[in-house]
Every structure is written in structure tokens, then in C-alpha cells.
Amino acid sequence: MATQAEHQSTRRDFLFVATGAVGAVGVGAVVWPLINQMNPDKSTLALASIEFSLAGIEEGQSVTILWRGLPVFVRHRTPKEIEEAKAVPMSDLKDPEPDSARVKEGHEQWLIMIANCTHLGCIPVGESGDYDGWFCPCHGSQYDSAGRIRKGPAPKNLVLPPYKFISDTLVQIG
Length: 174
What we know:
- By secondary structure, this protein is of the alpha+beta class.
- The chain has helices spanning 4-36, 42-46, 79-87; strands at 50-53, 62-67, 70-76, 110-114, 125-128, 133-135, 142-143, 149-151, 163-167, 170-173.
- The strands form three sheets. A four-stranded antiparallel sheet has the order 5-6-7-8, with no helix packed on it. The chain has a three-stranded antiparallel sheet with strand order 1-10-9, with no helix packed on it.
């Protein structure tokens, strides 16, 4: 028959093991959400790369699409807008960048850029402002028809996403 001391040590051992197991489950319950929140959002993974048809966009028209949770402006520029953008002297620009660096060769009529103001991330309004481009109503930044900052607190031009033309009417963003 087991003595009182042996019986006490068995119960004590069980309590230590049970306490350790509950503690391990508790630590896991706290640590798992912290680790899991570092995973990328499923919606951004699904849109890592998208294809967009340009066929329905008329000359002079802009559309806004969604890529990686960000709005993207796609503008079919007119010949007049292209010539105006090319004629701007670099000395007039806060963030000097020629029009040719903002479009793909052979597709100068298509301007594709992320629709976030580089000042505080607002979404500019298209075809407005002093330069017939984009105007950010939040703080007054104005961009020209090539998406270059011309006036206001924004420090940089509108950002260009990585993109390539698959055909004359199909573009892949991302």
C-alpha cells in the first residue's frame, strides 16, 4: 500500500504537469495572434499582379482600378496633353522627371500611376487644377498631365507602379 508521502508526491507531480500544460497553452494563445498578424493580407496576395484591358478607354478618358488595395489611375492621354507634358522645362518641376520616363516607349498615350498624393496619401481629383492633371483637395497639391508635382506641399511625383504591355490593349500591373 502507498504511503502518505508517496501519495502526496504523485499529486504534486500531477499539479506541476497540469499547470505547465495550461501555461503552455496560454502562451500559445497569446503568441499565435502576434505571429499571425505579420502574414500578408489575403487580398493583397490575390492582386499581386493583374491584367487590365485598355480597349474600352476613350482618348481623354481616365479610369481608376484597384491593385494591391491601392487605387491606380489609367489615363488615355490626348496628343495635346502629351505635347504639353513634353514641353515643360525641367526647371519648372519640383521633382524633375521627363515625360518619357513616366510612360512606356511606343505607348506614350497611356499614363498608369498609383492614385495617392505623395504628401499624405489622399486621392487626387482627375482633370482639374492649374495644369490639366490632378488636384489633391486635401492640401492643394497639383499635378500636371504626366502626374508630376507642380504646386503644393507634395514632395514627389505620383508613383508609377511596375507594369508592362502584353499587347497594345492589354497591360499587366505588378
